[in-house]
Every structure is written in C-alpha cells, then in structure tokens.
Amino acid sequence: MANVLHLMNAGGLLSPALEAEVREVAGAALSRHAARLGLDGVDVAVYGTPWTLPETGVGGYAPLPHWVQVTLTPENPNFAACWRTEIPATLAHELHHARRWQGPGYGITLLEALVSEGLAQHFEAEERGEAPPYARSSTDLNSLWTRAQAELDSPTYDHNAWFFGSEAAGLPRWTGYALGYELVRRFFTWQGADAVTHADTAAEEFRGAWGIYE
Fold first, then answer.
1. Are the C-beta atoms of 113 and 156 separated by less than 8 Å?
2. Does residue 81 surpass a pLDDT of 70?
3. Does residue 46 contact residue 22 with C-beta atoms inside 8 Å?
4. DSSP per-residue letters across 102-164
5. What gap in Å lies between CA 175 and CA 161, rounded to an integer?
6. Which residues pair with 85 in a beta bridge?
7. pLDDT tens digit string along 115-169?
8. What is the pLDDT of residues 1-40, one digit of tens each?
9. Of 3, 179, 210, 214, whose Cβ has the fewest other Cβ atoms within 10 Å?
C-alpha cells in the first residue's frame, strides 16, 4: 500500500500555478509525516471550499483511519501569506489523528478527545516549531480542567462547545484544544517521549498527569 495525495480541483478553484505548488508542498509534508508516524494506505484529499479557519483559509479533518481532508480557501485574505506553513502543519495534525484511529481510536469521551487532540497538536508543533495557535489560551486552564472533571468520562459531552467555544456554556473558543495540549505536555514531562511514541497510549493513562506537573 501507499499513501496517496488527491488534489481535487476540477472546478478550477486553484490556479494552475497554485495547484502545482500546493501539490509539491502537500506531497512533501505527507511523505515526511507518514514516515515518522509509520502510516500507510492513507488517502489525503486536498480541495477548495469556503469552510476553513478564517485566520488562515486552511482547515483539516480526519474522520477515519485511512482518510484525511485538507481544505483550502484561496480567496481568504490571510491564505496567501500562510498556506505554505499551514498545509504541512494541518497535515501533521490530521495524519496523527489517522494514526491514532488505527490504534485506540479518537474516542467518544471528553478525556479521550482531549488526549487525541493534545497528541495531534504536539505532533503539529514539531512541524511548526511552536505550539499551534489554538493550543494557547489566556483563560486559567486549571479552572477549566476543574470544570472538565464532571464530563471527562461522558460520551455525551458537547464537543462543539468544548472545542469551538460556547458563550451559553461559558467556554472560550479552543478550550478543549488548549486543555488537551497542556494535559499531554504534562504527561510528556511525567513519562517522557513524544506524540509518536504515545500514539497508541490509552487516554486513561493521561488522566493523572495534570496534578503531577505544572
């Protein structure tokens, strides 16, 4: 098997020059990240759509062990300045999800989601050379972690509220990402190694890391 990059541009949303450059940048990142993760047999679809992060014009999704999407909005005013960084970083994040899907899975509880997102962000941070923007929070994470305790084991937690924010719930945007990144950071401080080594580590093993290291 091999990993395959599919650049879907039948509608011409990407100019020929941009299509060629995106194919080169995404292809190199796919090869690099897949080799590090030991991934094989993954289809990566890259295509234009209006539904991406407004800050970058790039988005990603990995719903299955062998399927990753990277979405682009070339008309976004931020896209031109950042896509060469954001596509490899997004691929790192989503390919780690695919790798974890091939092991214990993404998970259905809040704790499992925090760990899966935290691991993916740490792998992404290796590509970026710094923490992803959504890993950073000006809110007191300790208080948010305390609040999360009641829902950590719930399979019916509100994923959109925790990860994308909810005024009604009093949860800032990216709360789950920031909590997950910090939980995994503390776990690495406690147990060592990195996001590749712990790609298959059960979420339950991360639970105690918050109270051990600051």
1. no
2. yes
3. yes
4. TTT-S-SSHHHHHHHHHHHHHHHHHHHTS--GGG--SS-HHHHHHHHGGGTT-TT--HHHHHH
5. 8
6. none
7. 999 999 999 999 999 999 999 887 899 999 999 999 999 999 999 999 999 999 9
8. 799 999 999 999 999 999 999 999 999 999 999 999 999 9
9. 214
Which pTM does this prediction carry?
A: 0.96
Distance of CA 84 to the CA centre of its chain: 17
User: CA-CA distance, 214 to 135, in Å (whole number)?
Assistant: 16
CA–CA–CA angle 208, 209, 214 (5° rounding): 135
Helix (H, G, I), strand (E, B) or coil at 63: strand
Residue 120 amino acid letter: A
**Contact, 5 vs 95, CB < 8 A?**
no
Residues 175 and 144: beta-carbon distance below 8 Å:
yes
Distance CA 206, CA 191 (A): 10
Beta-sheet pairing, 43-48 with 4-8:
parallel
Q: Are 14 and 23 in contact (CB under 8 A)?
A: no
Rounded Cα distance, 184 and 117, in Å: 9
Residue 8, both tokens? 């879907």
CA distance 55 to 61: 17
The alpha carbon of residue 162 and the mean position of all alpha carbons in its chain are separated, in whole angstroms, by: 15
| 23 DSSP 8-state letter | H
> Are 69 and 5 within 8 A, CB to CB?
no
3-state helix, strand, coil in the chain (%, to 5): 50, 10, 35
Polymer length in residues for the chain: 214
